[in-house]
Amino acid sequence: MYIFSRTYIKEKWAHVGFQRYFKNTGWMFTSRILCMIISFITTAFVARKLGPGNYGQLNYAISFIGIFSMLATLGIDGVLYRDLIKNPDKKNEYLGTALSIKLFAGFITAILVSISAIFFAQDDVSKILILILSVTFIFNSFQIINLEFQALAKSKYPSIISFLVTLILNILKILIIINGKGVIYLAFILLLESMLYAIFYWFVYEKKIEGKILEWRFDKLIAKNILLDSWPLIFTSAFVLIYSRIDQILIKNMLDAHSVGIYGSAVSISEVWNFIPVIIVTVFFPAIIYAKKTSEKIYYTRLKNISILLFTLSVIVAIITTIFAPLMIKIIYGDAFFGAIEILKIYVWSNIGMFFGILATNYLIAENRKKTLAFITFIPMMINVILNLIFIPKYGIVGSAYATLISYSMVPILLILLKEPRKIFATYE
Q1: pLDDT, tens digit, for every residue of 52-77?
Q2: Of 218, 244, 267, which marks where a domain is finished?
Q3: Which residues neighbour 353 within 8 Å (Cβ) at sequence distance 6 or greater?
Q4: % pLDDT > 90, the chain
Q5: Quick one: which of 116, 219, 200 has its CA closest to 157?
Q6: Are residues 164 and 259 in the same domain?
Q7: One domain, residues 316 and 381
Q8: CB distance 350 to 270 below 8 Å
Q9: Which domain holds residue 184?
Q10: What is the distance between the alpha carbons of residues 389 and 381, in angstroms, rounded to a whole number?
Q11: Span between the terminal Cα atoms of the chain, in Å
């Protein structure tokens, strides 16, 4: 496995460009891990104090608006990032156009979410939470500034912003809980989070990039090109969001908020491992793509090696979590969440499919196989929805966990069935 060998690492470390890239990604990953740790500890504290019922209400509202988030983003981030790298001299036009599109989409999405909450949310607390959180779609539009930092390989600044916002918001969450306030106050904190990101990104952009947001301009032709390039990714994002969020929405509607709280606590522990494939793919995928220019054999060998690595790590994570699930739930959430133990033991095995899904997304985008990407996300989504509708009435939240496990497992299965991805698992001398 040459890309993981000492010789390969020494060769790359000696390269000036690699050191610059390593420092850039180092800021990003350090910030992400610190934010994850802070958020996880705070989430456990909040969940303990709120109890399964109130914690479930908040999780339901977050999942509800999550379903609609693809309408606010329109899948343009990847396209915008590419265009900012290719056309740095036109950044004002690209950023101004993207911001205009996102502000409009965010405003419309907020209205649609609010109307949907009035008709579909079953209780007043859920409706209020969703109405508050829907406003985040508008302020989240300013997150496109982060793409400019990434395009300039200056992840240091958004990484610091992310850490500061996470620290501030989680301190506020703890203070709210200590003072006996409820989920409505926590929803306002989540709204404040999107506002702080918008303010900090704006401030740092003008100070460190020496750009002026007021100089950004909307370009009709650029808007057309961005939307034409991104529309297939809208469906892909929608499929992923639905099959990753629909379980908690259906549990709330078919059972109750208490069940969502129990289920959501298991999901939080399982998803804490998601940083592993993100880091591995982000670090090694550029080298994998570069190999395609020189040798198809090396390209597919590297893909196979990283696939084996991700599979191995996901299985190790699943085994460790399954063994220590009772201890994890007791220490992190307490006895009130005892019912989450069985859910965690099942749900954590879906990480195998999730790990592969992150690699598959990067691989298929690199291969410009957007239709294939849409296919391998649409099938799991449909399976997840159908199985949840069948399993929840019969088996409760345990049935939902099995539905998620089965649907996520479809990702590697579909990849093996498709002709092109099978080359990854071919044997090379």
Answers
A1: 888 888 888 888 888 888 788 777 87
A2: 218
A3: 380, 407, 408, 409, 410, 411, 412
A4: 25
A5: 200
A6: no
A7: yes
A8: yes
A9: 18-218
A10: 12
A11: 12
pLDDT for the residue 73: 79
206-233 confidence digits (pLDDT tens): 887 766 888 888 989 988 888 887 777 7
Closest CA to 346 of 314, 321, 381, 313: 321
Report helix angle 340-347 to 257-271, nearest 10: 40
Distance CA 394, CA 391 (A): 5
What six digits make up the tokens of 158? 């958004």
Q: Length of the chain in residues, anyone? A: 429
DSSP state at residue 319: H
CA 2 – CA 345 distance, rounded (Å): 35
Cα gap 407→216, rounded to integer Å: 43
The pair of structure tokens assigned to 369 is 């196989």
Residues 283 and 402 in one domain: yes
Handedness of CA 166, 30, 300, 20 (dihedral sign): positive
Amino acid at 23: K
Query: What is the DSSP track for 156-176?
Result: HHHHHHHHHHHHHHHHHHHHH
Nearest one of 188, 391, 370, 358 to 281, comparing CA atoms: 358
Tokens matching residue 215 = 């100089």
350 vs 247: CA distance, rounded Å: 13
Q: Contact 81/269 with Cβ under 8 angstroms?
A: no
R_g of the chain computed on alpha carbons: 22
Question: Residue 246: inside a domain, yes or no?
Answer: no
Phi, psi for residue 212 in degrees, rounded to 5: -125, 115
Report d(CA 225, CA 10) in Å as an integer: 42
Residue 239 within any structural domain of the chain: no
Q: Is residue 399 a contact partner of residue 407, using CB atoms and an 8 Å limit?
A: no
Residue found under tokens 């009709």: 220
- List all residues 6 or more positions away from 106 whose beta carbon is below 8 Å from its beta carbon: 72, 137, 138, 139, 140, 141
As for how many domains the chain has, the answer is: 2
Q: What share of the chain is helix, strand, coil (3-state, %, to 5)?
A: 90, 0, 10
pLDDT tens-place string over residues 319-352: 999 999 999 998 888 888 998 999 999 999 998 9
Tell whether 192 and 316 lie within a shared domain.
no
Which residue is it, tokens 């299965």? 413
180 and 279: one domain?
A: no
